[in-house]
Design a protein that fits this description.
A hairpin with a 5-residue loop joins strand 1 and strand 2. By secondary structure, the protein is α+β, with helices and mostly antiparallel strands. The termini are far apart. The radius of gyration is 24 Å and the shape is globular. The strands form two sheets. It has a four-stranded antiparallel beta sheet with strand order 3-4-5-6. The protein has one domain (38-390). Helices cover 24% and strands 7% of the residues.
Length: 402
């Protein structure tokens, strides 16, 4: 009797063996793919900051050496934004850009500090606790993509250059707007904050952030020139002073959303950990001399410890004497409680340093710092709660530039 040949195909055992091999290979490959994507995202972020560095130089060339700032130089002389508005009949608006709605009507979207009252976050580089009409920890240092600067990039508020691919929370929200032909898109109103932020300490006159050895922090409203932004080339240590940095913890954060914010704020209720919220954070950084690199928090911490030792604890790389206190820039909402407020609160502002360069990292045991729960809920600066402050739809009726 002739044997009937078996139909072509896999037996169950062979199929299971193949599936097992595929699963093993996938388990081996996926981490490598993840690392490759992460590495690619870092390279793109470095490239973004190189482009932004060129834009900063172009801006300075056109504006007599100035660096980007949104505050008028003599604001401190008037003691309040309202006094300035009363004296001049208004305040220069912070422009987001032109946008056309569905009926073809094109308007210039802007925030006008003299309209509607509320917190003048668009005026202050950063709000210090207790400062008049300011939101603590928030300010225009987070909006470098406004029109005055994005005209030197690609002419758009939501340009990919302002977003790091690995900064997934804001990047994914802004992604649908990247291809929009408008300079500003109302679907991003309230704004989707960008990945990179300016150094607010460097945007004030250096006397605001003066070292404790020289007398300590001064309220910019107490100085006629406090809001006068230094020139781009005034950095005393341009290779050690950060100019822009990834604001969120981008490279390997503990989680996409910081649970300590408990659904607060922007990004659809997901507020990421910030770049200074953990010793393991390594943000991509632009320095005032134009070079870009990863700046490990371990390096910064080691440099700060050295400066504290040299000054007998009087001064560190960042200021402990501002109204933020020893805690600094929202450290109590961080991951491990390690005190890091470089870039934001740099001692001596643009004349100071945010690293010493080439510092060996410090190994910290988990017990070195204890995680601290927030003492209270952060200030409510959501666009919904304070629409007057965040309304980017206040425009001239005819769409003309104010």
């Amino acid at each position: 009797m002739k044997r009937t040949p078996r139909a072509a195909g896999f037996s169950r055992i062979e199929l299971l063996a193949v599936l097992l091999i595929v699963a093993v290979l996938a388990a081996i490959a996926l981490p490598a793919i993840g690392k490759a994507r992460q590495s690619s995202g870092v390279e793109q972020s470095l490239a973004n900051l190189v482009t932004l560095s060129v834009a900063h130089v172009m801006y300075a060339a056109d504006w007599n050496g100035r660096q980007v700032t949104w505050a008028v130089d003599d604001l401190g002389f008037y003691n309040s934004v309202q006094n300035y508005c009363d004296a001049h009949g208004g305040y220069p608006p912070l422009l987001a850009g032109w946008g056309c709605n569905t009926d073809g009507n094109c308007l210039l979207y802007a925030y006008r500090p003299c309209v509607g009252g509320g917190h003048n976050w668009a005026v202050h580089p950063i709000g210090f606790p207790g400062m008049q009409q300011a939101v603590p920890g928030f300010g225009n240092f987070r909006i470098p993509n406004s029109k005055a600067f994005h005209d030197y990039v690609n002419g758009r508020f939501y340009d990919p250059t302002f977003y790091a691919p690995n900064d997934t929370v804001p990047y994914d929200l802004a992604l649908p707007l990247f291809g929009d032909p408008n300079e500003f898109n109302t679907e991003g109103n309230p704004p989707i904050w960008v990945s990179y932020v300016l150094s607010p300490a460097a945007m004030y006159d250096p006397d605001v952030m003066r070292s404790n050895a020289a007398g300590g922090w001064q309220n910019p409203w107490d100085l006629d020139y406090g809001f006068q932004s230094p020139g781009l080339f005034q950095a005393q240590y341009p290779d050690l002073k950060t100019q822009m940095i990834e604001h969120n913890w981008v490279q390997g954060p503990p989680a996409d959303c910081n649970p300590n914010w408990e659904g607060y704020g922007f990004f659809d209720g997901c507020e990421p950990y910030y770049f200074n919220h953990g010793i393991d954070s390594t943000p991509v950084t632009l320095f005032y001399d134009g070079h870009v690199r990863l700046l490990p928090n371990t390096e910064v911490f080691a440099a700060d410890q050295q400066i504290l030792k040299q000054t007998g604890g009087v001064d560190g790389l960042w200021h402990r004497g501002t109204p933020f206190g020893e805690d600094g820039y929202y450290i109590s909402y961080g991951y491990d409680g390690v005190p890091l407020s470089h870039h934001i609160l740099t001692t001596d502002g643009i004349l100071g340093r945010d690293t010493l360069g080439g510092m060996p990292p410090i190994a910290l045991s988990p017990s070195t710092f204890q995680f601290r729960r927030p003492p209270q809920r952060p200030p409510d600066i959501s666009p919904v709660a304070q629409s007057n402050s965040f309304d980017f739809t206040l425009t001239t009726s005819d769409g003309d530039q104010p």
